[in-house]
């Protein structure tokens, strides 16, 4: 009976770990397509918003990209919030004159606070949110606004393409993870709603913009309000954004802990509204977010179950298996490329996410951020 329970625990752990990446996508593919219903009408106006902190290195390329977007779409309003930068980021933005409306924060107050300040001043019908280190393709704005021809569409996500995936195993794993994430969003969009956006590129109708505390993850909170309002949150494949990957494990670990902590805090804040969503949207949310947040715990319980089973079969088998795992991890830690390094980076990502969730469960969260030095 003990062997049966250990085997069941190992199987459940394995299925739960793989669920967001294998089983959930397969289920999505069986769901019917929900087409959009565009109508003829005026093209809405738009405001593009971003927050920055100590992004002086990225700002020249960002500002050139914004000038290009303004040339393609002259009516685009651009607003930026400088979160108390100490490297001259705000001065670089201010030097662009009328290209960007700059709001300087009094000190470190966080992205959520900054975005609320920008949204309160924006005049466009559509609010477009992006990051200070993200570059948009020339037709991104027009392609994004075209999706709002369907009155049922309340929010539109873009497609993120990462740069620098070959620079380290950390970057390679991050790139693979994001390609899977993009495909999941495509399938979710095809079948109804995408369940949440990230901050690289997404938009909503300004009339839907919610009020929320500074401690939550603003991109998840703001995008989910579209679903709560009974509108569609969809993804546009032809709205392309580009961002450079983080290449150092230390930077990526801190980033994932911060994001996971704020995501769980946001989940707690949104829980009453999440419970009122349609059944299909609750299923999507649980599959792509909740199950993934606890992936590290599933890996840990699966490893314990596998070790206990091996010990019951043969102590020698347990010792050989444990030594093999230790050697693989040791090799992965000491290298920056190759399959062993990639495996270690996957485990690090799961550990960081679990640590962030555990941190949020104790009531702690993170309201400010520091840009990764290894981008």
Major sheet: arrangement of strands: 3-2-1-4-7-6-8-5
Tell me the count of domains: 1
Task: Please mark out the parts with pLDDT under 50 across 5 or more consecutive residues, or reply none.
Answer: none
Counted beta strands: 8
Overall geometry comes to globular
Topology:
Layout: H1 2-29, E1 46-52, H2 59-72, E2 77-82, H3 89-94, E3 101-104, H4 111-121, E4 126-130, E5 135-136, H5 140-146, E6 153-163, H6 169-190, E7 201-205, H7 218-228, E8 232-244, H8 249-274, H9 279-293, H10 295-313, H11 315-334, H12 339-361
Parallel strand pairs: 1-2, 1-4, 2-3, 6-8
Antiparallel strand pairs: 4-7, 5-8, 6-7
Helix pairs in contact: 1-6, 1-9, 1-10, 6-12, 7-8, 8-12, 10-11, 11-12
């Amino acid at each position: 009976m003990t062997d049966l329970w250990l085997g069941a625990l190992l199987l459940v752990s394995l299925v739960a770990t793989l669920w967001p990446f294998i089983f959930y996508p397969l289920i999505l593919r069986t769901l019917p397509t929900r087409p959009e219903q565009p109508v003829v009408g005026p093209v809405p106006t738009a405001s593009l918003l971003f927050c920055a902190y100590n992004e002086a290195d990225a700002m020249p390329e960002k500002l050139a990209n914004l000038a290009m977007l303004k040339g393609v779409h002259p009516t685009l309003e651009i607003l930026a919030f400088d979160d108390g930068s100490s490297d001259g980021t705000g001065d670089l933005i201010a030097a662009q004159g009328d290209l960007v409306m700059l709001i300087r924060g009094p000190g470190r107050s966080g992205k959520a606070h900054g975005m609320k300040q920008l949204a309160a001043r924006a005049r466009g019908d559509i609010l477009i949110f992006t990051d200070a280190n993200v570059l948009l393709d020339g037709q991104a704005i027009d392609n994004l606004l075209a999706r709002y021809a369907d009155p049922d569409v309340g929010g539109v996500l873009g497609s993120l393409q990462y740069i620098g995936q070959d620079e380290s195993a950390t970057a390679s794993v991050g790139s693979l993870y994001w390609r899977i994430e993009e495909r999941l969003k495509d399938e979710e969009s095809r079948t109804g709603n995408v369940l949440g956006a990230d901050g690289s590129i997404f938009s909503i109708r300004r009339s839907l913009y919610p009020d929320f505390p500074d401690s939550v993850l603003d991109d998840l909170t703001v995008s989910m309000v579209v679903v709560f309002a009974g509108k569609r949150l969809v993804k546009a494949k032809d709205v392309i954004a580009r961002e450079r990957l983080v290449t150092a494990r230390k930077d990526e670990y801190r980033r994932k802990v911060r994001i996971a902590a704020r995501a769980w805090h946001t989940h707690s804040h949104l829980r009453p509204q999440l419970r009122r969503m349609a059944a299909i949207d609750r299923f999507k949310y649980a599959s792509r977010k909740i199950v993934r947040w606890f992936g590290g715990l599933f890996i840990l319980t699966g490893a314990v179950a596998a070790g206990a089973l091996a010990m019951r079969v043969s102590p020698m088998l347990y010792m050989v298996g444990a030594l093999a795992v230790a050697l693989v991890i040791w090799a992965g830690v000491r290298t920056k490329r190759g399959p062993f390094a990639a495996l270690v980076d996957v485990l690090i990502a799961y550990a960081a996410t679990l640590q962030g969730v555990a941190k949020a469960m104790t009531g702690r969260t993170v309201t400010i951020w520091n840009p990764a030095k290894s981008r």
